[in-house]
């Protein structure tokens, strides 16, 4: 994942798509009456890139690869600034610089020296390259010439500083639009883009620096973005406080449906709900395995059921305010009925794994139940936590309609289900029915092991039980989950997360 530098200010938790950033830039230039407003932005952007390069690398042989637009314009000014500092600089251009227009034409004049065609670039002759071919706004496939250039850089393992976004990465979706070469450093401006944090793009960004280039603050604020980078600043103020006057019945009561075979999944989820602060946790266990749960869980209550009526009685107990269904539950009619009866009883829900797959053939039945649950308070009261496979089973039609745009898929799924959707992965996104979306960036690769998703579901349930709104509870749980994994480090197993959370 991109490593964030301290230069990333808290206001830049807001993520803008390339189209939104262009809108902010145009509005900022319009607010500045000077004819050179665009030149100023380009100059400051290039200065940020040049300074970042000088902080990270010693003077060396540097190739600046320029495209025909404003990203290439940034590159020409970067080349000029580094040459002034005594660096050995050569510029390679995708198109003749005299064909540039507007601010990019002005930038080419700042360089004022000869350029060579991009096809003449030989990576082995340089120590560092600046990728200013295309920025975050690229939305079409790269041409053969650019693909060949980037492939040569990758094969030569030439260190690269990318301007705005590594060429070939879609700034909105993180998808590749051809060949891309991984950057050691990416310098973007004013706000990061979703593509900096979404796979596969984030694997090509290296270290990410967000530089302030003086865009008008009001123009930035006026952009109606509802996408953010997940961080405590967004939800920490809503975390339930531990007050001296509280007792366990005031901190919520979670019911976890246990299964007969994969009993470890429900146990992990139940313990995670405890760790996140739920006052009480009850596992509803089939009578045949009641002893397994009762012996293993000392801090949880374990209540057995033999049929649907007994399970319904456990769910409907008034002080039990959250039901967590799915981990190890089995793709059974019992699981399906537990979901529907919990929703009908007005319980907040966390649905994972088997609870989602159980509705794969009739997803609208689930969506209708969740919409009815949300209606009285006009807000989502359920959180769904699918991985890609479970998402496809429940929302497969969205994958077909929206391609690989993960944010668009999660947003539309949340609207369709009237629930918060946590679409898990190394680039987990959390979407609310009202359009808000967070991208999470702190999850290490060590989380790719069995049981960690069960812990996440339990964390969400525990925070919901204490009164956090569904979207913020999901965002907090995902971030805390990643932070705990970072503290554990290599060799992580799901049980380690429970101890790290403490």
Task: Give the helix/strand layout.
Elements: E1 3-4, H1 18-31, H2 37-56, E2 61-66, H3 70-84, E3 88-93, H4 102-111, E4 116-117, E5 128-132, H5 144-156, E6 160-163, E7 185-189, E8 207-211, H6 217-222, E9 227-229, E10 253-257, H7 263-275, E11 280-286, H8 290-296, E12 301-305, H9 308-316, E13 322-325, H10 333-344, E14 348-351, H11 354-357, H12 363-374, E15 382-384, H13 388-402, H14 406-417, E16 420-423, E17 429-431, E18 437-439, H15 452-465, H16 470-488, H17 494-501
Helix pairs in contact: 2-3, 3-4, 7-15, 7-17, 9-10, 10-12, 13-14, 15-16, 15-17, 16-17
Overview of this protein structure:
It is a single chain. The chain has 502 residues and is an alpha/beta fold. Helix content is 40%, strand content 15%. The protein has 17 helices and 18 strands. The strands form 2 sheets. It has a 10-stranded mixed sheet with strand order 9-18-17-16-15-14-13-10-11-12, with helices on both faces. It has an 8-stranded parallel sheet with strand order 1-8-7-6-5-2-3-4, with helices on one face. Helix 7 (263-275) runs parallel beside helix 17 (494-501) and helix 15 (452-465) packs across helix 16 (470-488). The longest helix is centred in the first third of the chain and has 20 residues, at 37-56. The model is unreliable at 1-10 (pLDDT under 50).
Number of strands: 18
Distance between the termini: 25 Å
Strand content: 15-25%
How many DSSP helices?
17
Structural class by helix and strand composition? alpha/beta
Shape: elongated
Order of strands across the main sheet? 9-18-17-16-15-14-13-10-11-12
Task: State the low-pLDDT regions, or none.
Answer: 1-10
* Helix content percent band: 40-55%
Q: Tell me the Rg in angstroms.
A: 26 Å
Rounded mean pLDDT is: 92
Q: What kind of sheet is the major sheet? A: 10 strands, mixed
């Amino acid at each position: 994942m991109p490593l964030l530098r301290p230069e990333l200010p808290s206001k830049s938790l807001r993520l803008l798509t390339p189209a939104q950033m262009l809108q902010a830039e145009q509005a900022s230039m319009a607010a500045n009456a000077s004819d050179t407003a665009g030149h100023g932005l380009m100059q400051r952007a290039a200065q940020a890139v040049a300074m970042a390069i000088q902080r990270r690398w010693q003077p060396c042989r540097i190739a600046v690869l320029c495209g025909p637009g404003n990203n290439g314009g940034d590159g020409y000014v970067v080349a000029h600034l580094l040459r002034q500092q005594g660096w050995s600089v050569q510029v390679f251009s995708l198109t003749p610089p005299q064909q540039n227009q507007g601010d990019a034409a002005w930038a080419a004049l700042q360089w004022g020296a000869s350029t060579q065609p991009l096809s003449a670039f030989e990576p082995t002759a340089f120590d560092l390259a600046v990728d200013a071919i295309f920025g975050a706004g690229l939305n079409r496939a790269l041409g053969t010439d650019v693909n060949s250039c980037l492939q040569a850089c990758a094969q030569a393992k030439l260190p690269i500083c990318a301007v705005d976004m590594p060429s070939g990465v879609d700034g909105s979706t993180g998808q590749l639009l051809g060949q891309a070469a991984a950057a050691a450093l990416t310098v973007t401006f004013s706000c990061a883009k979703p593509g900096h944090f979404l796979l596969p793009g984030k694997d090509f960004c290296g270290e990410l620096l967000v530089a302030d280039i003086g865009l008008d603050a009001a123009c930035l604020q006026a952009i109606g973005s509802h996408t953010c980078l997940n961080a405590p600043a967004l939800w920490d103020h809503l975390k339930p406080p531990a007050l001296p006057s509280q007792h366990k019945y005031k901190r919520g009561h979670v019911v976890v449906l246990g299964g007969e075979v994969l009993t470890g999944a429900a146990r992990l989820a139940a313990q995670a709900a405890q760790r996140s602060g739920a006052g009480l946790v009850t596992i509803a266990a089939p009578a045949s395995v009641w002893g397994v749960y009762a012996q293993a869980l000392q801090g949880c209550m374990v209540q057995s059921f033999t049929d649907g009526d007994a399970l319904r009685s456990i769910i409907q107990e008034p002080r039990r305010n959250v039901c967590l269904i799915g981990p190890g539950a089995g793709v059974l009619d019992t699981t399906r009925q537990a979901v529907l009866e919990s929703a009908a009883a007005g319980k907040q829900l966390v649905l994972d794994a088997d609870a989602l797959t159980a509705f794969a053939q009739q997803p609208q039945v689930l969506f209708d139940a969740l919409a009815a649950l949300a209606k009285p308070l006009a807000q989502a009261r359920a959180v769904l936590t699918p991985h890609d496979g479970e998402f496809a089973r429940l929302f497969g039609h969205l994958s077909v309609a929206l391609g690989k745009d993960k944010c668009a898929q999660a947003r539309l799924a949340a609207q369709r289900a009237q629930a918060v959707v946590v679409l898990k992965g190394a680039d987990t996104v959390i979407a609310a029915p009202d359009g808000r979306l967070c991208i999470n960036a702190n999850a290490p690769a060590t989380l790719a092991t069995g049981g960690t998703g069960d812990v996440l579901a339990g964390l969400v349930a525990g925070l919901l039980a204490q009164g956090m709104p569904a979207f913020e509870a999901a965002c907090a749980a995902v971030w805390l989950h990643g932070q705990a994994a970072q503290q554990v480090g290599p060799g992580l197993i799901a049980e380690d997360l429970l101890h790290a959370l403490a």
